[in-house]
Specification:
The chain is α+β, with helices and mostly antiparallel strands and 297 residues long. The protein has one domain. The chain is built from 6 helices and 11 strands. The strands form 3 sheets. A 5-stranded mixed beta sheet has the order 9-6-7-10-11, sandwiched between helices. It has a 3-stranded antiparallel beta sheet with strand order 2-1-3. The radius of gyration is 24 Å and the shape is globular.
């Protein structure tokens, strides 16, 4: 008599063991994949800043100075909220292959005018860090009372004001808002003004977006909106605290990279500055002509 051929399948225990092995492999693989992706994003962020550094040097070659932090003038006199409000990043658009966008700007009108709406609402990848996952490419700036004023494009790179508190400028609207760094109101800083050395001075750094409860740390590449809430610190930062320090405020430099943030030096090099950098050294880097000696960092 012919016996039926037996077919052996997986037992329940064998199946569970296979599933457990796969789960362990996935658990080991995911962190490596995430680290690889973050490394790629961090590299792209460095490339963005490198392009900004080159653009600033090209602008300096043409204009014999760095662009102003932002322009604020009313009837020929200094006014932090005067015409036109456009910031340093808007001036280097041609050097970032954004000539057509730059040509649409009318610097004789305020940034928030309808004539400048097209440029004002245009998000640019060159000013966004890929590690910043905040949704949206534009945001609405409000006044201190919460009233909507105007939409601006989101950005993650702000100029270095120095070590002084930018908020001090708000109480003095008709006085020049001057900092110790590369950018401030109506500034025209030249490379020769960096007597501390271009390689010892940071000029642009990262600023992360944070919009959880009680926070609105959204920066922009556009400029300063008259009477906007925290308007100046949307385009300029100070070095009150080290990057990503637990004590960080909206005017501090920050990023979503672990351990610190990327910066452009005055010579165009891009450096990663650690959260653990000595605060005194960090603040020396933020000044252009304080006679500070900066070693390795």
């Amino acid at each position: 008599m012919l016996r039926p051929k037996s077919v052996r399948g997986f037992t329940l225990i064998e199946l569970l063991v296979v599933i457990a092995i796969i789960a362990v492999l996935i658990a080991l693989l995911l962190p490596a994949v995430q680290q690889a992706r973050e490394a790629a994003r961090r590299t792209q962020c460095r490339n963005n800043l490198k392009q900004i550094g080159l653009a600033l040097h090209n602008y300096h070659d043409i204009s014999n100075s760095l662009p102003p932090g932002w322009v604020g003038i009313t009837n020929g006199a200094s006014d932090i909220y005067g015409i036109n409000g456009w910031g340093w990043a808007s001036r280097i658009l041609p050097q970032l292959d954004q000539g057509p966008l730059f040509n649409q700007l009318n610097f004789n009108l305020k940034m928030e005018s309808t004539t400048n709406e097209t440029t004002r609402l245009t998000p640019l990848a060159a000013f966004r860090c890929p590690s910043d996952v905040a949704p949206g490419t534009t945001w609405t700036i409000q006044d201190a009372g919460g009233t909507d004023l105007v939409k601006l494009p989101v950005g993650n790179y702000v100029g270095v004001f120095g070590t002084s508190d930018i908020d001090d400028c708000v109480g003095l609207p008709n006085s020049p808002c001057m900092g110790e760094g590369a950018f401030f109101q109506n500034s025209r800083i030249q490379f020769r003004d960096f007597t501390d050395g271009l390689s010892n001075s940071i000029v642009v750094g990262e600023h992360k977006t944070r919009r959880d409860v009680g926070f609105n740390w959204t920066s922009t590449w556009a400029g300063v909106v008259a009477n906007g809430d925290d308007a100046i610190v949307r385009i300029l930062g100070t070095c009150d605290h080290t990057p990503n320090s637990p004590a960080n405020h909206i005017d501090d430099f920050s990023s979503y990279h672990v351990g610190g943030a990327n910066f452009v030096m005055g010579d165009g090099a891009v450096r990663f500055v650690s959260t653990n950098i000595d605060l005194g050294v960090y603040q020396h880097l933020a000044t252009r002509a304080a006679g500070d000696l900066v070693g390795e960092f």
